[in-house]
């Protein structure tokens, strides 16, 4: 299992950063390799990605979500095994630290080599930077979902 962690400080209020992150169908606007995401329910999404010329599809379930705090997920089907969490930290009224942690299982030689030389770290860092540019250039979120999903067993 490979773990990648990246933080980025964005110059928007915590609610704006969080609300934008809940707009999964907008991820292709700032995440390289994400072709599309379809929201299939409050806590379920379907992803299509293309990395290194390889297209993958999978479903993901939001396993925990608390407004202005965190969104956690895990894959539930398809050919990709991963889980992650994004946390939001108020730095000031108009600045938020967004921390992304992604755990995934590289498959095949290309993904294993890419992970070994840090391609995944670079990708997450670049996606975080593009999220910062996206939300700061807009100044407001494209939508929001403020629902709360309790951690299983909580």
Automatic annotation (TrEMBL):
Species of origin: Actinoplanes siamensis
Origin superkingdom: Bacteria
Protein name: Cyclase
TM annotation in the entry: none
Domain Coenzyme Q-binding protein COQ10 START: from-to ranges: 10-127
InterPro entries in UniProt: COQ10_START, ORF3, START-like_dom_sf
Pfam families: Polyketide_cyc
């Amino acid at each position: 299992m490979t773990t990648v962690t990246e933080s980025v400080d964005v110059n928007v209020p915590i609610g704006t950063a969080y609300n934008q992150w809940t707009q999964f169908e907008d991820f292709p606007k700032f995440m390289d390799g994400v072709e599309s995401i379809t929201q299939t329910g409050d806590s379920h999404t379907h992803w299509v990605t293309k990395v290194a010329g390889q297209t993958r599809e999978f479903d993901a379930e939001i396993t925990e979500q608390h407004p202005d705090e965190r969104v956690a997920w895990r894959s539930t089907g398809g050919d990709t095994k991963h889980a992650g969490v994004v946390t939001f930290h108020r730095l000031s009224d108009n600045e938020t630290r967004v921390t992304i942690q992604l755990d995934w299982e590289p498959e095949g030689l290309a993904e294993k080599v890419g992970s070994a030389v840090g391609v995944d770290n670079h990708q997450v860092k670049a996606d975080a930077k593009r999220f910062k540019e996206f939300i700061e250039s807009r100044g407001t979120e494209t939508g929001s979902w403020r629902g709360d999903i309790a951690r299983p067993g909580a």
